[in-house]
Specification:
Blueprint lengths: L1 H4 L4 E2 H11 L8 H13 L3 E6 L7 E6 L1 H12 L7 H10 L8 H28 L3 H28 L1
Antiparallel strand pairs: 1-3, 2-3
Helix pairs in contact: 6-7
Length: 163
C-alpha cells in the first residue's frame, strides 16, 4: 500500500483501481485486506487520513504517505528479495522507480538466482530421467526449467535495454 501511495494521495477505492491498472497481474491482495490495512497505516504513523465530503457520492477517506511511511517503504525495498516469491520480486521491481537510481543490481540478482535454481532443476531432471520418473513429474520439472530460462532471457534483455 505504501508503494502505491507514493504516487499520490488516494482513497481505498482509488488505490484498488490503481492496483487493478498496474499490479494486479502479479500481486492482488483481497479488496477487504486493502481496506483493513489503510487504517493500520494511519495508526502506525505511516500515512495520514483525511475525510472528504462528496455531493454525488458517499464521503471518502483519502490517505497520504507520511515521511515515516516513505522511510518504511525505502527500508522494505532495500531488504533482500524473496526470489522464490515471484510477486515479491515484481512488486519490488515495479516500486523501485521511486527509490532506486539503478535497478541493475536487482535484475542481476534475479538473473543469478534464476541461473542457480536452473542448475538445481537440471540436476533433478537428470536424476528423474535416470530413475524413470513418471511423465508428470518430469514435465513438472520441464515447466520449472522453462520458466527459469525465460527469467534469465528477460533479465539479459532488461539489462541490455538499461545499457
Amino acid at each position: 500500500m505504501l508503494g502505491l501511495l507514493v504516487h499520490r494521495p488516494m482513497s481505498g477505492y482509488e488505490l484498488l483501481k490503481d492496483m487493478d491498472r498496474n499490479i494486479r497481474y502479479f500481486w492482488a491482495p483481497a479488496r477487504s485486506q486493502v481496506y483493513a490495512i489503510l487504517p493500520r497505516l494511519v495508526e502506525q504513523g505511516l500515512a495520514t487520513a483525511r475525510a472528504v465530503e462528496q455531493k454525488e457520492r458517499p464521503d471518502k477517506t483519502v490517505y497520504r504517505l507520511t515521511r515515516a511511511g516513505r522511510d518504511a517503504l525505502d527500508t522494505w525495498l532495500a531488504e533482500p528479495v524473496e526470489h522464490d516469491n515471484r510477486g515479491h520480486f515484481l512488486l519490488k521491481l515495479f516500486l523501485s522507480e521511486h527509490v532506486r537510481a539503478d535497478v541493475r543490481p536487482l535484475i542481476e540478482e534475479r538473473r543469478t538466482w534464476a541461473r542457480q535454481r536452473l542448475g538445481e532443476l537440471r540436476g533433478l531432471e537428470r536424476q528423474a530421467e535416470r530413475d524413470g520418473d513418471t511423465f508428470h513429474g518430469v514435465e513438472t520439472l520441464h515447466h520449472g526449467i522453462e520458466q527459469l530460462r525465460a527469467t534469465v532471457r528477460w533479465a539479459d534483455a532488461a539489462l541490455r535495454r538499461l545499457a
